[in-house]
Amino acid sequence: MVGATGAKQSNGRTIEHVRNDWDRAEAEALYALPFADLMFQAQSIHRTNFDPNHVETASLLSIKTGGCPENCGYCSQSAHYETGLKSTRLMDRADVVATAQRARNAGATRFCMAAAWRNPKDRDLDQVCDMVSAVKGLGMETCVTLGMLTPKQAARLSDAGLDFYNHNVDTSPEFYDKIITTRALQDRIDTLAHVRDAGVKVCCGGIVGMGERVEDRLGMLVLLANLPSHPESVPINLWNEVKGVPVNDTAERPDPIALARLIAVARIMMPRSVVRLSAGRQYMTDELQALCFLAGANSIFIGDVLLTTENPQRDRDGNLLDRLGITSRLS
Length: 331
Ligand code: SAM
Ligand code: DTB
Ligand code: SF4
Description:
The structure is a single chain. This protein has helices spanning about 25-30, 35-50, 95-105, 120-135, 150-160, 175-180, 185-195, 215-225, 255-270, 285-295, 315-325; strands at about 5-10, 15, 55-65, 110-115, 140-145, 165, 200-205, 205-210, 235-240, 275, 295-300. It is an alpha/beta fold. The chain has one domain (about 25-325): TIM Barrel (Alpha-Beta Barrel). It has a 9-stranded parallel sheet with strand order 7-6-5-4-3-11-10-9-8, with helices on both faces. Helix 2 (about 35-50) crosses helix 9 (about 255-270), helix 4 (about 120-135) runs parallel beside helix 5 (about 150-160) and helix 5 (about 150-160) crosses helix 7 (about 185-195). The longest helix has 15 residues, at about 35-50. It is globular and about 55 Å long. The N and C termini lie far apart (about 40 Å). Mean pLDDT is about 95; it is low at about 1-5 and about 5-15. Bound molecules: S-adenosylmethionine, 6-(5-methyl-2-OXO-imidazolidin-4-yl)-hexanoic acid and iron/sulfur cluster. Iron/sulfur cluster binds near residues 70, 77, 78 and 147. Iron/sulfur cluster binds next to loops.
């Protein structure tokens, strides 16, 4: 059977071996399975490793917005494009903590702080470390995404108690330089290694809907699944439309079934990773989100905004999860 990576236990459950040697042909064969077979395999693996009726809730805050020197062709915050976004300085710690507290009260278990930097300056990192310690003190999981890090910077964040570092590969190695040319994919992979070495958990995924081929989406999953350790969190973002950026010229939203297939393949290839249905949920119907949860997605961002773009309203999310009998901190 295509994708059979585990052995049957006496209770009928499958023990999944976490593999880091996936090849493209295997990913393509999984993706091409009849839909029911693919979903069954993904759901079986999902319930072996997770409570299938629970979804994690994370909240985002842009702690330093805009003016970024990188040229990521999808991003509202790049200084290379006229997106109409107002740049800001690094927020004060007290404002960050107050926002985290509101997010916690609204049902978030993880708070992710993002800065539009190519890499943090050591002075800025001191302030971010203080924010991390304070948010952790609220009893929330912490995540930051600050661009590229040196090993020393990663160690400082670890010492501050950081739980997760988000740093995405964004797309396949082949499509990468159609989207970003100011840094190489290898730079991103090096930062991920520094984060791992510092003992911080990795949040790493990418974006679909920028004009990439299905092969690129699968190539991205192969890249993620073949990292030395699977990222603990894998955010799959659907490109959130931003005016003025180059991706507008190529963007094409995947058909809903293609998106559910992709989530299922991610679940099968990275059986123990939390897969987050990240940006772009506001373009998805309730039915598509339900299919993605069945396929193995088990995390979402909550809150009316992500960093600079829209996210579904809390009531819509709460209502959807209730109707699906999915538990979360939202209800
Ligand atoms: N500057 C840091 C970096 O690039 O690592 C952190 C912030 S950046 C906004 C985090 C990730 O959000 C990007 O790597 C990208 O995958 C995703 N992202 C950014 N803009 C997006 C958009 N318009 N739609 C979907 N995902 C987006
Ligand atoms: C991730 O993969 N998605 C989040 C988080 N990591 C930092 C960011 C989504 C950003 C969507 C575009 C915006 O709001 O600016
Ligand atoms: Fe800068 Fe991150 Fe946006 Fe790229 S994705 S332009 S690095 S803020």
